[in-house]
Amino acid sequence: MRDTAPSRPAHRFTGRRHGPVTGFAAASALVVLTACGAEDTGPDEAAEENGDGGALSGELTVMAAASLTDVFAEIAEDFEERHPDVEITLNFAGSSELVQQINSGAPADVLAAADTSTMEQVVEGEGLDADWAAENGENGLVFVTNTLQIAVPPENPAGIESLADLAGDDVQAAFCAEEVPCGAAAAAALEASGLDVTPVTYEEDVRSVLTKVEMNEVDAGLVYATDVISAEGRVEGLDFPEAEEAINGYPIGVLANSADPELAAAWIEAVTSAEGAAVLDDAGFGAP
Amino acid sequence: MTTAAPSRSGNAGGAPTPRTRASRAKTGRIPWILVLPAVIGVLFLVLPFAGMLIRAPWTTMGARVTDPDVLAALWLSLSTATVATVVSLIIGVPLAWLLARTEFPGRRFVRALVTVPLVIPPVVGGVALLIVLGRNGLVGQYLDAWFGLTLPFTSAAVVIAQVFVAMPFLVISVEGALRGADRRYEEAAATLGASRVTIFTRVTLPMVLPGIGAGAVLCWARALGEFGATITFAGNFPGTTQTMPLAVYMAMQRDPEAAIVLSLVLLLVTLVVLATLRERWMSTA
């Protein structure tokens, strides 16, 4: 039994761009694992500990913005420990891509997006669970915020200090494409600054901007503060005042397609609970 | 696909062939066990494109297609794919000749290596190119230090990514043609005193020209559709590195209708070129 334990966080490997197949693989792995893990703690005992009346059980599919990858994996692990009969499949991708998938009928229970405008597209597609939305907010519940930082390679070879430094002719900067939330935020921050910065590339998501900075292919990139923390020293983050104009709120909501809205609501409660908030705070997210 | 195919298979209204009635009846009978899966196969390939045609926003099509950003992406795609094909011809044909006509240590290994870009995910190719040719890469750091040359985020990087993924199509086509060619003409030329270079340019090349043509068309088409290595190695900037496939991907994030329009443009261009060029090169092969 113990031998299988290390593969426990199988959901971490749920691919960003290939949800259903890997998601299914991860879910199958979890079926096996929870079956093994159940004997360790004992489901009844765990349910009593939890003290929330009826024990939760079932499968839950959570779609979340790529920037939530690490924190949601951690919260999911805690959640599964407290509710051994629950299997969580996490599916991470760019928010806009997730919205396209949901509006095309992808089966999922919860969406956590990286900005409110992408969530509004789900709402327009009548994708949020009506009962849940009536109680918690028509456009989802904003549970964290994220602020932009300038990420530079270690030791900052180009000597970047402010957003204005990115406008220099000999400075190569990477931004997110405006089609994705981090790009929309970058555009808002630039507009607030009145600066004219032309990057060398508009990357498809925030993690690829981070990678280009990590590999020292660009002198600087605009990413979220949380991404700088997740890079664990491979990039340095610089605060800049214009970021205040481009703070993203992350909304979360139960989807209309959810097979188990009660379980989905319990997941959202876990994310917004004190424990969940602590995990998010450690990762660099701001309070809503 | 080839014009010769229908008469060769000799069924369904084919050209009269000197065969007996019995044998024609036997070959002419349609084996349903093959036809049904084949029809499903055709539908599987055609339906997605038919779906795009149905969902396309025809009323706004004209304005969307003539959008400067779309035209810039289309022009970049066409020009980089053409340059990539020329580069592939210059280095790929000699490589194919070496593989087909010479013995050297490690030839099998090189041959396997040539086919690697065909099967690995293009994004892996992009990562590899970035690690080697990036500003901080194994080779790239010297290009930067000695010549002040950085490849990523330039149109040259797009061409490099395209050559990496598309050249194997050319090399394999040409190598096949070289192996299939009758070597006695080359031997005859040699006995008549022609030099090796003369034999290659005057005898071998003309013989395998259809193979080179077919390979070049495939190579061009693959370069035109290249996405993964490009977005990883070359980045995404309108006018410089944003080719049509990248523009389609970006449009899909916010405006699926725009993505459909761009896809249809790319599909149309590819079909026209493949139909005209392949017909020409394949039918004479």
Automatic annotation (TrEMBL), chain A:
Classification lineage: Bacteria, Bacillati, Actinomycetota, Actinomycetes, Streptosporangiales
InterPro entries: ModA (IPR005950), ModA/WtpA (IPR050682)
NCBIfam families assigned: modA
Pfam families in alphabetical order: SBP_bac_11
Originating species: Nocardiopsis exhalans
Keywords, comma-separated and alphabetical: Metal-binding, Signal
Family that this chain belongs to: Belongs to the bacterial solute-binding protein ModA family.
Gene3D superfamilies found in the cross-reference section: Periplasmic binding protein-like II
Gene designation per UniProt: modA
This protein's name: Molybdate ABC transporter substrate-binding protein
